[in-house]
Amino acid sequence: MKLEQRHWTVGKGWTPAGPELAGAADLVFVFGETSLLKQKNLLDQIQGFYPGAYLFGCSTSGEIFQDRVYDDSITTMAIKFEKTKMRSASLHLPTVKDSFEAGLKLASSLEHQDLTHVLVLSVGLAVNGSELVKGLSQGLPSPVTVTGGLAGDKDRFHETLVIAGSEVSNDSIAVVGLYGSHIKIRSASLGGWDPFGSERLITKSKGNVLYELDGQSALELYKVYLGTHAKDLPGSALLFPLCLRSDDSKGGLVRTILAVDEKTQSMTFAGDVPEGTYVRFMKANFDRLIEGAVGAAEKSMSLKKASPELALLISCVGRKLVLKQRVEEEVEGVREIFGPKTAITGFYSYGEISPFTPNAKCELHNQTMTITSFMESDDEAS
């Protein structure tokens, strides 16, 4: 695997100035601020650097470039696979009935023979990430793993974009399938939030829309917990997510709000909030957020504890808003685990798609740091 990372800012343009991989790249991750990805000349420049490569990326709530975190920039990671084949597919959400069907259709669009891993990037609004993951998981062979995330738009919740080849769209989902036994991929996702207050029971919901907790208006109850932060909804909800657990489970998934509806007194989340599930409000613990990122890196290391060639980091915008000037500490913590040779790229998202640990069930997460590590080996059995 050959890698080349580049970065664009208003003041400096592209760094480094010229690509070395040039036409040799197969795949290029592209992560950037929403308004910049709408500038056709910038995307044309990237495609010109790597003609023939498939551009795969999304808008962000912050860009990760090595062990730094940026805003209002574009970061690219060009990849030339030595022994791994790839295929891609994408669709527009209006062309399918719902997010579950979108997942099924994308899964069926990829050849299944020798498929090892699927990377997925989705718009961050008007999508049910839980249902998307369920559709992908049901449509793919059981050994195939899935990771990815939902596009971001800072804390504006206005418009998110996905890049699939030459197309930039605000209503699409894209996948890239990686094939063969030479590609070694591991992933993990950890949080670091602390619960507070008593548990509440979801008594009325539909899919990813929450109406009532303990028979009361969920929105009004949430506003009570938020206090003065309530006036800044939905953005302030990133600071106070909900943790869900079923009646027979001690663990939980974290969910954040994408939108509120005062008329229906409802809250729309990035993933499902099923009736009969218990929830607790969460708040930040700075040290544990950073420890969560480090823990995800440790769990995504290879079984031989060898540093990966590439690490894709997808962290929630809520973590970035809480950590503020300390946000780079979680990326620096990952760097300390992987060492200096691992190339690091990624973005801050509206949702993270990954198993909690290798070999676990794939889920949609919020408020986590999700890491997918890549190595390409000459030894098929390694």
Report what the structure shows:
The chain is of the alpha+beta class and 382 residues long. It is built from 8 helices and 27 strands. Strands 15, 16, 17, 18, 19, 20, 21 and 22 form an 8-stranded antiparallel beta sheet that branches. It has a 7-stranded mixed beta sheet with strand order 2-1-7-3-4-11-12. A 6-stranded mixed beta sheet has the order 6-5-24-23-27-14. Helix 3 packs parallel to helix 4 and helix 6 packs parallel to helix 8 (328-338). The model has no long low-confidence stretch (mean pLDDT 90).
Summary keywords:
382 residues; alpha+beta; 7-stranded mixed beta sheet
**Proportion of beta-strand residues:** 35-45%
- Number of strand elements: 27
Largest sheet: 8 strands, antiparallel
Q: How much helix, percentage-wise, in residues?
A: 10-25%
Distance between the termini: 16 Å
Using the CA coordinates, give the radius of gyration: 20 Å
Spans of at least 5 consecutive residues with low confidence: none
Number of helices: 8
Average pLDDT rating = 90
Q: What class would the helix/strand composition place it in? A: alpha+beta
